[in-house]
C-alpha cells in the first residue's frame, strides 16, 4: 500500500498529469499480489478447524505470537510463554496447545476486544466511593495499571455498595486488599478471565489447571451428535457459543411457528413486528448434509 501511494504521488507530480484518470495513477497488481500471498502462503492464514461449533469459534478467536514479524518456536523462551498479570481479562491463562507452541498460541478471553491500535482491552464496571455503577469502560493493560480493581464476586448489598471492610483487589499488577472507598473499578464477570472453551467447563475453579487445559482443548475435538440434546450440567455459555458460531438457525423476528419439516421452518410473524405492505411470514431453509472442513 505504501508502494502504491508513493508511485501515485510520483505520477501526479509529473508534468503531463492533467488528463490522468485514477486508474492511470494506481497500479492494483502489487496490492492484489500482497493479498494473494497472505491468503495463499502466510503462516497465519489457516484452514478453519470445523470439528464442531466450539472449535470453529475458538479458531476465529485465536491469538498467535508466531508468524511474520513474530517469534519462532525455537527462539521463544520461558518468559514469553508464561502467564503474565496483564493477560487478566484479555488472554486466557488456560487454553493453549500442549506441544512446542505452548504459550505462543493463546485464546482471547470471553469479553476481550481489540482497540483501534490493536491492543487488547477488557471491560470493567466503574466504582465511585464504594458504590458499583452500571457504567462499563474498556481498558488496555497500560490504562488499567493505576486503577484499584475489585473482583466480580465482591460482596455487595442491594444498593450496590461494597460491604466488606477489606476488598480483594488488583493494583499495579499485584493482588492485595483495600478499603471499599479506594476501589475504582470492578470486573464485569467471573468468567472474563478465561476463554470461551474454558468457560464451558462446569466448576472450572475446582479443577487443576493442567486438567482444565486438556479439557478445554479436547472439547474442540468432539464430533457433533446425530440427535443434539441440552446438557444436564452446564455453565450458561452453551447457548452463546452455539448462536455466535453461526451454525444455529436464529429467528429474525418473534412470532408463532406455523410448520416444520426436514427442509424448512415457517414462522408466522407477530403482528407488531410486521412492516406495512410486507408478508407476515418468515421462512428459514435448513442446511442439510453440508460438508464441514473436517467432514463432520
TrEMBL record:
Instruction: Enumerate the Pfam families for this protein.
Output: RNA_pol_Rpb2_3, RNA_pol_Rpb2_45
Q: Does the keyword Transferase apply?
A: yes
GO cellular component terms attached to this protein's record: DNA-directed RNA polymerase complex
- Name the Enzyme Commission number(s) assigned to this protein: 2.7.7.6
Question: What InterPro entries does UniProt report for this protein, alphabetically?
Answer: DNA-dir_RNA_pol_bsu_ext_1_sf, DNA-dir_RNA_pol_bsu_external_1, DNA-dir_RNA_pol_su2, RNA_pol_Rpb2_3
Keywords, comma-separated and alphabetical: DNA-directed RNA polymerase, Nucleotidyltransferase, Transcription, Transferase
Q: Name one GO biological process term.
A: DNA-templated transcription
Q: Which family does it belong to?
A: Belongs to the RNA polymerase beta chain family.
What name does this protein carry? DNA-directed RNA polymerase
Q: Which organism's genome codes for this protein?
A: proteobacterium P50(2011)
Amino acid at each position: 500500500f505504501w508502494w502504491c501511494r508513493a508511485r501515485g504521488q510520483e505520477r501526479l507530480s509529473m508534468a503531463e498529469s492533467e488528463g490522468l484518470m485514477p486508474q492511470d495513477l494506481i497500479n492494483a497488481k502489487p496490492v492484489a499480489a500482497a493479498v494473494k500471498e497472505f491468503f495463499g502462503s502466510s503462516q497465519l492464514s489457516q484452514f478453519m478447524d470445523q470439528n464442531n461449533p466450539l472449535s470453529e469459534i475458538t479458531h476465529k478467536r485465536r491469538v498467535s505470537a508466531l508468524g511474520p514479524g513474530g517469534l519462532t518456536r525455537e527462539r521463544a523462551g520461558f518468559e514469553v510463554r508464561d502467564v503474565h498479570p496483564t493477560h487478566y481479562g484479555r488472554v486466557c491463562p488456560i487454553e493453549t496447545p500442549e506441544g512446542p507452541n505452548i504459550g505462543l498460541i493463546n485464546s482471547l478471553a470471553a469479553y476481550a476486544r481489540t482497540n483501534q491500535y490493536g491492543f487488547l482491552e477488557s471491560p470493567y464496571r466503574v466504582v465511585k466511593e464504594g458504590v458499583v455503577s452500571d457504567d462499563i469502560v474498556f481498558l488496555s493493560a497500560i490504562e488499567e495499571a493505576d486503577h484499584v480493581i475489585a473482583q466480580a464476586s465482591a460482596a455487595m448489598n442491594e444498593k450496590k455498595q461494597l460491604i466488606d471492610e477489606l476488598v480483594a483487589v488488583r493494583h499495579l499488577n499485584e493482588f492485595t486488599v483495600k478499603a471499599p472507598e479506594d476501589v475504582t473499578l470492578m470486573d464485569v464477570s467471573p468468567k472474563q478471565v478465561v476463554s470461551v472453551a474454558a468457560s464451558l467447563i462446569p466448576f472450572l475453579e475446582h479443577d487443576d489447571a493442567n486438567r482444565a487445559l486438556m479439557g478445554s482443548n479436547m472439547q474442540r475435538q468432539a464430533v457433533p451428535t446425530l440427535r443434539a440434546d441440552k446438557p444436564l450440567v452446564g455453565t450458561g455459555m452453551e447457548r452463546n457459543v452455539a448462536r455466535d458460531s453461526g451454525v444455529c438457525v436464529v429467528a429474525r423476528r418473534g412470532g408463532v411457528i406455523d410448520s416444520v419439516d426436514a427442509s424448512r421452518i415457517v414462522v408466522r410473524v407477530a403482528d407488531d413486528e410486521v412492516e406495512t405492505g410486507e408478508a407476515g411470514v418468515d421462512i428459514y431453509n435448513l442446511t442439510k448434509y453440508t460438508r464441514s472442513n473436517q467432514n463432520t
